[in-house]
Amino acid sequence: MKNRTRTASIALAAVFSASALIQAGGQAAPEASAATEQGSIVLLGDSVLANPAYAQILTKGFGPVPGLAASPGTESVQAPMNSEYLPNCAHSENTVGATLQSRGHEVYDFTCAGAGILKKQDRIEDLNEQVDELVAQGRVSDNSRVFINIGFNDVASPENLPASKDADYVAQVSEQIDKIRSIAPGAKISMVTYPVIAEGPLGLVCPLRVAPDSKMPMTIPAFPVKLAEDRLEARARQVAEAKGLGVVDARAASAGKNSCGPDAERWVAAGIDVPAENEIYFHLTDVGINGVADLIEQA
């Protein structure tokens, strides 16, 4: 039981992303002319949408990685962050935003690995800083669709998990929505729930997937992760109700498709996951990235 509890705690910690470094500027907001007349897609949130690569997490969290060399004789380098709008936020080249862009959408992806809303983090662009930068850059208009997925990094701190913190979450996310509406009152804003990590009443996860379509992956309960998912879904729905928003229900769409599912169906990577290759543990697989992109496209 002790090992299971420890593993569940590790599983919960694993969904919390690496930090990013830049701080939002204090410049005045220009007119929202940068968003296309056809209607842009704006993404706000954490590593679930940003989908950082392992090398980016290592270099941002611990400095340059030996062996990741820029040229012969170079000991180590920082991995490029690849975020166009928040340059020091870690994005891989395989993200929900990039997928939507490849489908012909105008996408402004302000997501940042490690972001939250309930606790201030000096080296991370949290939701409030993402929105400040979005407004400052004028990347939102009345024709925009804005999607917000936030909160898992907050509940890494146990004091932010109880239902008593729901009101704080609703108030702080609502404040950011008001900022967006102050310059783009016609923008359609939606909350995005998290995809299923811990499945079923016991919160089952599969930390090891070492062969394609493993028939009997190792399954363990990670009930604390399920509790976090329950709380975060409730909070997203409370914000949606309070502010008149839509809900993009990635949690419902991914039911039965967590790290224990067949490779061709599962939305979430395992801890050690050979079939999913470079995907971060308990973050989106290629199937999951396309699944979330489909939901956003249809919203």
TrEMBL record:
The record's annotation in Pfam families points to: Lipase_GDSL_2 (PF13472)
UniProt keyword annotations, A-Z: Signal
Taking every annotated instance into account, which residue ranges of this chain make up the domain SGNH hydrolase-type esterase? Answer: 88-288
**Domain of life here?**
Bacteria
Q: According to the UniProt entry, where is the signal peptide?
A: 1-24
Task: Spell out the protein name for this chain.
Answer: SGNH hydrolase-type esterase domain-containing protein
What organism does the UniProt record list as the source? Corynebacterium lactis RW2-5
